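Pipeline run #58 for the internal structure catalog. This entry was flagged by the ingest filter as a single-chain record with no existing model, so it goes straight to prediction. Upstream metadata was stripped on purpose; only the residue string is passed forward. Reviewer on rotation: M.T. Logging verbosity set to normal.
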Amino acid sequence: MAINTRKHHRLLGLLLLLPLFGWALTGAVFILKPGYQGAYEQLAVRARPLAEEVQIRPEPHWRQVRLVGTLLGAHLLVTTDGPPLHLEPGSQRPLPLPDEAALRRLLQDAASVNPARYGDIVELEDSRARTSTGMRLHLDWSTLSLRQEGRDTRLINGLYRMHYLQWLPWAGANRMLGLAGLGLLLAMAGLGLRLCLGRRG
């Protein structure tokens, strides 16, 4: 019986060796956070002084209003109970996404805060851009907010998924994988305890 217990314990240990090693390695990354500052740097559209005073006529369903100036002019950003609104301040009509040349200038202006990381805009499709340094920039025009993603961001996100056993594209399957891993770990601990108690007996 002791031989079988020891054999099963060894097999479970070998089976869990790689996941436990990956968990420990990725855990160390999350504690030390190497490269986090650049990978999750908060990139923003650069604010510019407003050229002239603007009169705003608030609507009843508006919850929060921001008047922002950029190199493209003034932007009225409104928070409502529904989707956010990006309006032209004077007419208060929806402000459409600018043409490619204007959008390129806006994104390049934002990227200029850290040229070593972001470089120059080399490709633009709708509100998504790729830079000469391999960065991806995503502009949410409705809120005038930016998100940046580089190779380091994707690597750390991949390590996060590895750490939390998000190995498959389905949430339910990942949950079952996690439960199976916990079950195997408890089984190995139980066999180890059994071996320890048997040795004492």
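catalog note: The CA atoms of residues 87 and 152 lie 35 Å apart.
catalog note: The radius of gyration is 27 Å.
status: ready for reviewer M.T.
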